[in-house]
């Protein structure tokens, strides 16, 4: 750990601190729960649990999804905090949750996480304009996920005007990220992500997308300084999307970021909560298997091309049950049920389920332990 701290400072968020400036991105359904988040926090990073249909395997889920999810949020936060403790009962990282603004029970998920003692809450898939009210009076730190300085400014202004406070940190997510993306299809096409993929074209798209995000990050760093001065605080900026190896982490700090968020690298780990079949799908994926899809959430998403994706391109999947996951979802109009698609995949039906991934999934070649992934990311060991 000393070698890591010589290269990168700890991540300080308000009065909380993670020894390693790495946030493990939230991945749902069921990919990042207590096992993965706890393992990351034990190594000194920030372990993030996705609350999206987190209770899919709880008793009673099929009958009452909302109740099962709230129960699971509390259970997995508590379990992650236990896993994160070292032999002396101490934790050198943080445990948090990712809550999608697009969820039907978004507010309830945030409040449940606060009550369970979540250190941080990160919100994306929409603008969390009312988030400060939901955590009022707690020690939980909050951050929006943004993809542009424009969105960041909108949130800062709203929180400043209405709640007289600012963000505790900011996650800036680029177009190379996995899952739901905060970009329009025409932007993704401009970067080159919609063209046929091979190793060379994927690298070119990532370079173009990263260059655009570098500019946005610089704008956001300049913007956040205004609010740091006003509120006499530090607002760390976290770079996310396409962060895969040490050189990416180093680049983030050279830009002026305070940390990075990494998701896909942690899927092919022994500690990840997903099924073995799901992890193997990552290991077998190639650059040409990565595809941008249209999600029922209303955002573009990045996923592994499989039989399910091919089927949804040709026909609408029959929806036999609504799982009450999204605030704005009409089963009669959406192409498929995203809950069923994600649950099927995480349980192991990788051909008939939806497998979200980052643009660099083709680079993942072997199963690893969380400890070793973090050592690679921080340059302590070379790949």
Can you put this structure into words, describing what you see?
This protein is α/β, with parallel strands linked by helices. It folds into two domains: 2-274 and 364-377, Aldolase class I (TIM Barrel); 279-347, no CATH class. The chain is 39% helix and 15% strand. The strands form three sheets. Strands 3-11-10-8-7-6-5-4 form an eight-stranded parallel beta sheet. α2 (34-42) runs parallel beside α3 and α3 (65-83) runs parallel beside α4. Residues 63-90 form a coiled coil. This is Probable nitronate monooxygenase. Pfam families: NMO (PF03060). InterPro entries: Aldolase_TIM, NMO.
Number of helices: 13
Number of domains: 2
Q: Which CATH class of the largest domain applies here?
A: Alpha Beta
Taking strands numbered 1, 2, ... along the chain, how are they ordered across the largest sheet?
3-11-10-8-7-6-5-4
How would you characterize the largest beta sheet? 8 strands, parallel
End-to-end Cα distance, whole Å, is: 18 Å
Structural class estimated from helices and strands: alpha/beta
| Percent in strands | 5-15%
Poorly predicted runs of 5 or more residues? 1-5
Q: Give the tally of β-strands.
A: 13
CATH topology title of the largest domain? TIM Barrel
Order of helices and strands: HEEEHEHEHEHEHEEHHEHEHEEHHH
CATH superfamily label of the largest domain = Aldolase class I
On the 0 to 100 scale, the average pLDDT is: 94
* Rg, Cα atoms, Å: 19 Å
Helical content band: 25-40%
Estimate the global geometry from the Cα principal axes: globular
Architecture (CATH level 2) name of the largest domain: Alpha-Beta Barrel
InterPro entries: Aldolase_TIM, NMO
Organism: Ruminococcus hominis
Keywords: Coiled coil, Flavoprotein, FMN, Monooxygenase, Oxidoreductase
Pfam family, one: NMO
